Amino acid sequence: xxxxxxxxxxxxxxxxxxxxVFTALEVLMEILIPFITASIIDxxxxxxxxxxxxxxxxxxxxxxxxxxxxxxxxxxxxxxASAGFACNLRDGMYENxxxxxxxxxxxxxxxxxxxxxxxxxTNVQNAFQMILxxxxxxxxxxxxxxxxxxxxxxKMSLVFLAALVFLGAVLMLIMTRTLPIxxxxxxxxxxxxxxxxxxxxxxxxxKAFVRESYxxxxxxxxAENLYRLFVKAEGLLAFNSPxxxxxxxxxxxxxxxxxxxxxxxxxxxxxxxxxxxxxxxxMMMSLMMLSMIFVMVSMSAASAERIAEVLAExxxxxxxxxxxxxxxxxxxxxDHVSFSYKSGSGEAVLRDIDLHIRAGETVGIIGGTGCGxxxxxxxxSRLYDATExxxxxxxxxxxxxxxxxxRDQVAVVLQKNVLFSGTILDNLRWGKExxxxxxxxDACRQACADEFIRRFPDGYGTWxxxxxxxxxxxxxxRLCIARALLKKPxxxxxxxxxxxxxxxxxxxxxxxxxxxxPGTTKLIISQRISSVQDADRILVLEDGQxxxxxTHEALLEKNDIYREIYDAQMKSGGDFDENSSAGRE
Length: 585
Description:
This protein is an alpha/beta fold. It contains 22 helices and 12 strands.
């Protein structure tokens, strides 16, 4: 883990080294100040020598100024190093996530990834900054103060040792009780973020079903879990301060008692006793800072592990070193393909699929929910890899292609349509970055989107809110289809992508495809017979296996499943919008 995180310090090595160096110099100056104070008292004030007072006073001011300068520089470099480290961590995780295959992404929840890139990185950043400054300052101050105490008076220093043993034992007891609690806290952050994300993304459903109270209760429960754990942990940490004060005041009383005897006996000067008081405070504060460091580092250890897990995740979909850059045509072959999701139960979703689709052919895909329709088409653009067998596009195994080249030629309009914040043109140009406005308009005409776009006051410059929340489901689907068409792909996959448009518009889109992109292989997944019955061939899937693959007429004669679906839809009168449009005509 340390090796993985250590790589993210790149670019900030200089600041990472200079911060502890200047911190050490700051401590050195601070350690010398009490020693000089003793000289002012013993050689200047008590001896009545004002020259020595001015001399040592000037030296003490110089050391104090140097300590200030070194402290400022240490703080500046520590801030630069920790902020840069955090920036690299977020960049590294985000960049690695972009390389993930779908099976990698399936291992993590969205809320978990968001927590890793926000809360967890902030925890590690704070811990790193403390390590650069306080983790250097505290032990150095502790050791140097102890050395100076023994230099001044070895017997009196035994008081400090007793206090240190007592304080160290109590702090260790507190930390062993609090650290497991803090580890639980960060696991609960995922639940809290998941609750917020789920509620915000599904706010329309929440309101439609009047479930605001339920969602409030769920969030409150997650927040209260965090509250209870934090209160429990912080309640234990609260003992730090009184135990610290007990040790400090115990040392002061001990020093005063024994110091008085040593001064009377002539073995200790007043100045030395004053220095000892300063050093004891420095040692006690160093111990307190060390306890804070242990808590912070332990708190961030769980966060560091979660971050390292994402950084170390290797995409399980390997690209060939010299991948094929050209897809010859849109032919698709499934050679005895089986597939299962690794992060799931391991049960096969597709079993022994043997299909051969010609370039330019239109194929409808139909079947019950969970029969493997979406899983099947996901293998074509290599969103997942087949568990057994081979998937070929243009006569080549998809694993031989450069992924970017393959996905440029296999356009997929997924079941869940996603638009991004930006103008309509911005969203369309996800399909082709340098597409002209005329090309965008032509793609929208093919997708039957041009008409409604022109009704907007700003036309193609209309701003789309995050997730496309300011357009209807049907409009969103048509924009996503147009975006895919801009790629001019050799294979176009519509995964139930016209479910939110009426039958008449669906028919117009399919007619436009037939006329405008005849050479493109088109796979249309749909629950509606009317959407697939005019296809060259129709694939019927049942429980992850091919039940039938033929024309509409042939399947009606030979395939019981297809006939049942057809009868169920036709006996109910077909789609209501289809009948309505026919009546209007």
